[in-house]
Amino acid sequence: MGFIKHFPLFLLFSFLVIMGCQDKYLMEPNLPSAGTLKADNGQNCLPQKVNGNWIAGKALNDTNTLEVSINVTRTGNYQVQTNLVDGIQFSGSGRFGAKGVQVVTLKATGTPVQAGTVSFVVQYDSSQCSVAVTVLPPGGLTVPAEYSLAGSPNSCFHSVLFGSYIQGLPLNNSDSMTLQVTVTNPGTYTLQTNTVNGYHFTGSGQFTKTGIQKVTLKGSGTPLLTGQDSFTVSGSNTDCTIPVTVLTAVSTSNPDHFPLTYPSYWNYDDLLNTGDTLQWKVTDSTRFNGNLYKVINQQGKFGNPVPAYYRKTDSVYYENTDVGKYTVSFNFLPVIVADVPILREYLKTGDSWTSNEFIGPAAFGQTIFYRLDFTCLDADATVTVNGKNFIHVYKILLMPKIKSALTYPYNSTSEKLEYWYAKGVGLIYSKTINNNFTIYEKQIRNWQVF
What we know:
By secondary structure, the protein is mainly beta. 6% of the residues lie in helices and 55% in strands.
């Protein structure tokens, strides 16, 4: 009876509470958002991104937008817009559902009237910032640009030279220079150097905006002599000079990337243990399983030399070794000794090959499936190692891979082993990386190939 007696009172109380909440919700004003536009000390919108092409006389479309950042301090609806300049105006609206820095995209409308740099004032809440848009002349980027080279008319400032310049070796796509220019009016450009010592540099393109920018000039031709060449970079009413040094490549007569002729030798510097050296020397020959191997004694700074066994069959080089030497992730027990195809001749960049699959128990008892994947990163590199310039270099990447069952996919051990072989010289550089840490690195010091 007590429950029934008080039930209507409970309903009435709940109804009043609900109505009170509804009245409060209905009476609460729908406040707009609040915040400030992000800007630098000069009141330039920061950051800002202008998208699309801006050409005088051409109506704007959905690709013509401006992105600005706002630090939102109160959520709610927003309206951001600019003034109307040169027939163009930006605007955007929506709702901020969270506080903090938000990026807003403003859509441009109208048709630019005149070419040139147009400055807009962006307005939001009680804050404002400015942004500049470059409007191109009618015809767009078909008109010549107006610009100046950094350092003109003297040495090119902020220039960077890429590639290797070797006497008698034709330049390729990696041989180039990057220059800094200041653009005052967008448009097309062509930059080129004079021809010096059999080669030159050229570059062309379009500047779509004003300000400081970078341009790249590609080299072509073949340096004829060693020494320093001075080039003059010429553009539209601007020029500057830049030096290029042509080097002498290491001279070789052996056609192999891994010579095995007796009694050739190679001396290496250990780059992780300063002062330590390693010598490889072809000392003998021996036979295993009907195959003839050359013995290369590998002598460290301390201890006795350790023999290594290599052979070349057709165009493939094999090392007969403990296959686990290429990884620190596990050890086979007992050790598996087999031929590993460490290198091939006649490679092209991107070529790859794989060793046989090796299966056996690891030292911790589990059966491991193991293989070695090789990739040619560059089949004709030009590199400088320890002050010596090598051409026709193979850059080989070796990645050990393992799995724990026949049906599982192979996975990397997180180890990367890189080997550089120079034609007529042999191994000139090697590095081992494990979990992004270099654990071994060596480079050639001197050698003699017979």
